[in-house]
Each structure stands twice: as structure tokens, then as C-alpha cells.
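Ticket #4471: complex job returned nothing on first submit. Input attached below:
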Amino acid sequence: MNKTDVLIIGAGPTGLFCAHQLGIIGLSCEIVDNLDKAGGQCIELYPDKPIYDIPAVPECTGEELTNNLLKQIKPFNIKFHLNERIEELKKVENRWHVKSSGGIEFDVAAIVIAGGVGSFEPRKFPIKECGKFEGSSLFYSIKDKSIFKDKTISIFGGGDSALDWAIELSNTSKVNLIHRRDGFSGVEASVQKVKELNDRGRLSLYTKYQIDSVLGEKNIKAVKIKHDDGEIKEIKSDYVLGFFGLIMQLGPILDWGLTIDKKTVQVNTENFETNVRGIFAIGDICSYPGKLKLILSGFHEGALAARGCFKYAKPDEKLRFEFTTTSKAAQERLGIKK
Amino acid sequence: MAKIIYHTHDNKTHTVDVQKGLTVMEGAIQNDIPGIDADCGGGMACATCHVYVKEEWLDKLPTKEDGEEDMLDMAFEPKKNSRLSCQLIVSDELEGLEVNIPSKQG
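Support reply: We reran it on our side without changes. The output follows.
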């Protein structure tokens, strides 16, 4: 059981800055995120896109913003639990007992949900029967590439993941790459490589085709693909891979008794607490009159939520308002030596 | 204001007046029309505001910017008449635009 003052769900910019604010006022926290790295939407959706509206930062990319925030919270030595999704919450006297998808348990005084628009999940094929093959002969990510050796693999998608895996697997497998149009969103070098492999017969490229159906009993035997003009082709496949990026799902948060409206959690604007005492929500996931989905708003919300957590973590102490420019305690927590 | 006609998956038609300058996506969100999620808030980063534009409108709409077609690769069942509704800004020219909202966004 991990015992800490506050559990932050979501390692996007809002969650990271809230951790900073908790650290400054002397509270401990740990951060959980479903992705394999910190940064949330900044890293997953637009790592290279410049952001122009962070106060006092004229321009930075999602990746730079994330790295700077990680640097800013470094003094607090915060423990991250990545690739974990929070599944269950239970109130035990004045504490919350929380369990993650990987079985990690937490004992905390308060919870801050900084979950963006939910946790990122792979986008799936639109066809129902794909579900029955998922995890055995149909995948949305690759954990063990050795299973594909000497097999026939049909890869769907036109982004970097689809192209990279098509190139990589073409060394040891028979690869079909199927994409809905002639253009690709992946990097040009990979596109050229795929075309070259196709010309040399090392890979079969099918453009303007989309999935129509999958055939097979226990495992996939073949896929049917449909051309824009209606023509249907059946191609033998042992495995099917789909790379359509990620989509955000609210997931288990829906079951925690929070007031949810249009995929967002209602909070008060005094301390961003939800209708459940001890559970706060900040950033894109929270809603209140006048809510702006800006990173800077998430920072403000995180600062207030951190202070809101104080009374649960240290019920017998009084929180004094202090500035980092002058507070000895805050500077000590930041590890500043004078 | 311009009239925008949204056909939802449950075979209902929602005809709403959308303020000029807003996007077709915002028109749907503000009027509680189901089926458009717009998770990223209009940043062309998620493809959950995907709509099918009525064929006769295809040529009348502003052309796709770089990135919209890339995002549509990620959309649920993209077709030739697919657009991201966050990229369609309502103006006089769009008066009477009809869009179909797909059965799901992800």
C-alpha cells in the first residue's frame, strides 16, 4: 500500500503543476497515468506543435512544456506510476483506498483528478467481429513481435506506427499494408521506404482500401478489404494490426459517484472540489460556469485544488499563505540553498 | 446566423441556427446535438467531431487544411465526404448545410 497525502490522476501539464503546488505547501503526492510517459495530451496529441498562450512563455512545444514542468517538480521527488489506470476508489474512515489496473494500492487523504478528457485508449476497427479476435490474432499495439515471424500480417493505418511496423515486420513476415487513401500522415522517409519495399515485392501495399470484414473461427484466417470504388478483395492473414491512434475514454471515473455532465466533472470554483468530499477535479476534465479549456486555467485550478487538499491531509494544521520569493519553508522544500 | 441541418444516427434531424463565425462542431455542442464529442476542443487533434457532408456540399466547402486529412485517417469509418466539423466555419455560404453524424466517434 502506497501511503501519501494526495493521489493525482493524470500526468498532463495540469496534474504536474498541481504536484508542484502540493509540494510547495508541504504535502506529498504520487501521480498515476495510463500512458507510458508524462505530458498527457501535450505529448500524445501535439508534442511538436507550438503553444503560444502559456503566460510568460511566448512559444513552446508540448514536449518542451512537459519537460519544463518535470524539471520544476524535480525537487519534490514525486513517484510516478505510468501505464496504470485507476479502477476503484473506496472511502475508509477519513482516507481513500485506491486501486490501479496493475493492482497498485494507494492510501491517500485526497484525490485530484487531472484526467484531461479521460484515459487514452487505442482506436479500434469499426467492425464488431474484430472484438472476438482482439488479443489473440488482432492487436492495436505490439508487445511481442516474435509471434509474427514467418506469418502473414495485415496492417491497417497510414501514420507512423503503421508505417514503422510495416517496415520492421517486413524483414521477418509477409506484410500487407492497407490504408484508406494514397497519402500518408507518417514521415516522408518511411512513406518512401514502404513504397520501395512494395516495388521490390517485399511488402504489399493496398491504398484506397478499408477493412470490410474478418474471416476465421478461433483465429483470423483472412481479411476482406473494400476499395473506394466498391471492389472487395480477400487477403490471407494470420494476424491483423490496426494503428488508428488513440481516443480518450472517461472509463472508471464514471462510476465514482461524481456529478458528470457532457464527459466533464462538475466542481466548485473555490477549491475545485467535486460533489464528493476529498475528490477534486482540475484541467480539461472539470467544468464550471466560465470554464476555459486552456493550460493556464488548469494551472490556476491546480493551485487552488492543492490548497483544498490541505485540510484533508493535515486536519489539525492551519495553512498559511506564503510566497515562494520569501517563504523559508517553501524554499527548503524546493531544495534551494542560500 | 445560418441554418445548419444535422442528421443524427437515430434518424433524427436537428435544424439549428448557428451564429456566423462559430464552427459546425460548436453549433452541435451548443445545441446538445448528440454524436459529436470534440474531445480536443477544436484543435484538429482527435477526429471526434467527424461528420459526413451531404454530397452536393462537398465542393462548396473550403478545402481541407493540411492535417485534416491526416486526422480523418483516425476517424471512425471515414468516407469521401468526411470532414472534421471543427474546421467548418459557419458563414452565409454555409446556409442550409446538411451533415450526417456517424454512429460513433471512436
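The domain at 2-121+247-333 of chain A is CATH 3.50.50.60 (FAD/NAD(P)-binding domain). Closing as resolved unless it happens again.
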